[in-house]
Amino acid sequence: xxxxxxxxxxxxxxxxxxxxxxxxxxxxxxxxxxxxxxxxxxxxxxxxxxxxxxxxxxxxxxxxxxxxxxxxxxxxxxxxxxxxxxxxxxxxxxxxxxxxxxxxxxxxxxxxxxxx
Length: 116
Prior knowledge:
Elements: E1 2-7, E2 22-29, E3 32-40, H1 59-64, E4 70-73, H2 78-86, E5 90-93, H3 99-108
Parallel strand pairs: 1-4, 4-5
Antiparallel strand pairs: 1-2, 2-3
């Protein structure tokens, strides 16, 4: 299983997924998390603020992590949930702050992270 975690500083989870600069990508295998890489988030969330009539979507963000099975987030809005669900990428909520702790915790006990 491969997971993505939004971050701005390569250390902590960024709570606003659409505004995160990067995704930390981890491979989950045998209750262990293995860091794979950091990927740039191509989604420019501020583009939607000036165009209230356009349909808000996260297609570019979904494509950036389309090889992942799950996205671990602090929170997710309706559009984010809908777009990732359509791509069959599960969203899980976490209370952890450090991305390495998020990955380790998820690897050891995915049930501790509710699906949203």
